[in-house]
Structure formats: structure tokens, C-alpha cells
């Protein structure tokens, strides 16, 4: 994966003061977001092909237990409605919306621009995808109820029925496949180190010895650091005890000098570096990961529908994946998106 080239030309996002204001705004909104309880029941008549979908779900469960390529453990695309989609469509009146767990403080992914006035609408690459899914399922791109959820609450929010799906820079991995179902990948990234430009840290290497590193709770970054320190691939003296609810909290800790480095997805770290030109990515990405849309394990029809939407999203050159990348991410990452575009999807097939 090629190195990210950053540009620090974005307005209004430099320094601790601006970040503190943005962070406070995020906290206010998060407190204002209320849980409305579990989303509507997925009861309903079983559509034609339901038994085949269930057989594929069994295959998916087996694949999760013996998992080597988690990004391929998903169901083939389909436009057919089933119990999960029918339940969403049957919500009454103003509740007839897609309920989606998102981030609200990941710059260029899912965030509220502090320079955007009073509208306060969420925007970013993930948010574009949410609107696309809502338009396909409900015929209205704005038929969405956004729920801001911290990193470590993404899976519980799905399992508890608080959301229909999560679109929040969520890496597909074998461990998570035991708890939720994923779509095919919609973005390729990898873990990288973020540190002050003046720092002697050079990357994911011995320069992290005796350094304090911040990660988000429940993130693949923390799992990787824990595994590598145990195996000896990370210096034993590296302090990985600082974990926070959201990725942006790590940037604030870094700005305040409470930690020496942050480990995060390179795509998110690039956006954080754009928020503060005093920090930069150090070294190359040291993992390969894929973002996916997460849903309940038994929501087969919703998984298949989202996979069909992603096929269309990738193929739409006017308003799809490429256009969204250019609008939101080209300013903080490479102009050439080829390193971030996931490979052609592969799906589970019955043996």
C-alpha cells in the first residue's frame, strides 16, 4: 500500500484550540442523541429463496470459525426484499427511516464541519454511502436516522437492535464475523503510526520503545499492538494502555502531549493529520484491512441488498465511489485512489 501524501491546506482545522471546539461540539451532539430502543422486528413472511439464503448463512458461520480471508465471507448481491428490509419499509410514519450507526468526528468520513454554520448536517465518505443505501431501500436518500456511536459500541449497537447497520470505517475481521455480518469491502486501508513531525518515532518499529501509544477501544489497532507486543514484534516497553472511546480522542491526547504516538487506520490517520499540520504519518502501513458495512448476522436480505448497492456504487462514475473519494478524501490522501479501492468482491458460494 502506497504511502499517504498529506496536504495541510484545509481551513479552520489547525491547532488544539480549533480541535477542542470541534471535540466539544461532537460531545454535545453525542449527548443529545437518544436511543429509541431496538429497531423494528424483522418478523415477516419468508420470501422465495429464503432457504437458500439461510444455507449461505450457515456457510458464513462456518467460514467465521475457520477464517483466513474475512473480506470474502459475505453473501452474493441481490435486490430481493426479505424480513429485514420489509421490517424497515413497514415502519410507520416518520419512523420509516433507515437507522444507521455512524461517526460524527472523523474528518472527511463522518463529521460535522465546525465551519458549516447552523445546519450541522453530517457529511463525509461514509455518509455518502449511507444516503445511497437509504435511497435504494426507501426511495429517499434523506430517510435516515443517524446515531452517533463510539468505536467500542459498534457491535453492541447492532446486536441490541439499536441500529439496522453500521457505516463507520469498520474493518472486516475474523473476530467480528462471529458477532455481526459484513458487506463486501468498500474501502482498503491499513494501520499506520501518527506522531508529531518533530518526534523521533519513524514508524511501526523499535522507535516505539518506551513510548506511550494511543488507540481506540475495540479497534483493530489495539488488537494488533497487543498481539505484536506479546509475540515480540513490538518492543515490550511500548505502553499501549491508553485507549479511548473514539479515534479523535487519541489526536487530542497527542496534541496535549499525553501520548507519544497514535496507531489508527491510515485512512483515518491521514484525515487527522490534515486537521493538525504539526503531526504526520510515520512509515508505511503495516497491515492490510478493508472497511465493510456491518449488520445483524441473520439479516441475510439486508446484507445481500447492501452488496448489490455497493456494486452499483462502485460502477457509478458520476456520483458513486470515485466521485465521493474525489470530493472527500483526495485532499488528505493520494489523488490516485487506486491504493484505496478494494479489489473485485468475492462472495460465499454453496459447496
Give a description of the structure.
The chain has 351 residues and is of the alpha/beta class. It is built from 11 helices and 14 strands. It has helices at residues 15-32, 50-65, 83-89, 125-138, 154-159, 174-177, 220-231, 247-255, 266-275, 300-315, 321-328; strands at 98-102, 105-106, 110-111, 144-148, 165-166, 181-182, 187-189, 191-196, 212-216, 239-244, 261-265, 279-282, 289-291, 294-295. The strands form 4 sheets. The protein has a 5-stranded mixed sheet with strand order 4-1-5-14-6. A 5-stranded mixed sheet has the order 10-9-11-8-12, with helices on both faces. It has a two-stranded antiparallel sheet with strand order 2-3. Strand 2 and strand 3 (110-111) form a beta hairpin. The protein is globular. The two termini are 33 Å apart.
Amino acid at each position: 500500500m502506497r504511502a499517504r501524501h498529506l496536504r495541510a491546506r484545509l481551513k479552520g482545522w489547525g491547532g488544539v484550540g480549533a480541535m477542542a471546539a470541534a471535540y466539544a461540539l461532537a460531545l454535545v451532539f453525542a449527548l443529545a442523541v437518544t436511543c429509541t430502543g431496538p429497531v423494528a422486528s424483522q418478523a415477516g413472511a419468508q420470501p422465495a429463496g429464503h432457504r437458500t439464503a439461510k444455507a449461505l448463512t450457515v456457510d458464513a458461520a462456518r467460514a467465521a470459525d475457520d477464517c483466513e480471508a474475512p473480506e470474502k465471507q459475505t453473501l452474493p448481491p441481490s435486490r430481493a426484499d426479505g424480513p429485514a428490509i420489509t421490517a424497515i419499509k413497514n415502519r410507520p410514519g416518520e419512523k420509516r427511516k433507515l437507522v444507521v450507526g455512524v461517526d460524527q468526528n472523523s474528518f472527511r468520513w463522518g463529521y460535522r464541519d465546525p465551519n458549516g454554520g447552523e445546519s450541522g448536517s453530517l457529511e463525509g465518505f461514509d455518509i455518502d454511502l449511507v444516503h445511497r443505501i437509504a435511497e435504494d431501500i426507501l426511495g429517499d436518500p434523506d430517510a435516515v436516522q443517524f446515531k452517533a456511536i463510539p468505536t467500542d459500541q459498534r457491535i453492541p449497537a447492532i446486536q441490541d437492535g439499536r441500529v439496522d447497520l453500521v457505516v463507520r470505517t469498520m474493518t472486516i475481521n475474523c473476530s467480528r464475523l462471529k458477532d455481526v455480518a459484513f458487506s463486501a469491502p468498500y474501502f482498503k486501508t491499513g494501520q499506520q503510526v501518527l506522531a508529531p513531525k518533530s518526534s523521533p518515532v519513524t514508524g511501526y518499529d523499535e522507535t516505539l520503545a518506551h513510548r506511550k501509544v494511543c488507540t481506540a477501544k475495540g479497534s483493530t489497532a489495539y488488537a494488533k499492538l497487543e498481539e505484536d507486543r506479546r509475540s515480540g514484534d513490538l518492543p515490550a516497553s511500548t505502553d499501549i494502555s491508553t485507549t479511548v472511546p473514539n479515534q479523535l480522542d487519541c489526536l487530542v491526547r497527542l496534541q496535549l502531549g499525553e501520548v507519544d504516538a497514535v496507531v489508527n487506520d491510515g485512512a483515518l490517520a491521514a484525515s487527522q493529520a490534515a486537521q493538525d499540520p504539526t503531526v504526520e504519518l510515520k512509515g508505511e502501513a503495516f497491515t492490510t484491512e478493508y472497511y465493510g458495512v456491518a449488520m445483524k448476522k441473520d439479516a441475510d436480505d439486508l446484507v445481500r441488498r447492501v452488496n448489490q448497492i455497493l456494486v452499483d456504487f462502485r460502477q457509478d462514475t458520476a456520483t458513486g465511489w470515485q466521485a465521493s473519494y474525489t470530493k472527500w478524501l483526495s485532499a488528505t490522501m493520494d489523488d490516485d485512489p487506486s491504493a484505496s479501492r478494494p479489489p473485485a468482491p468475492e462472495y460465499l458460494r454453496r459447496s
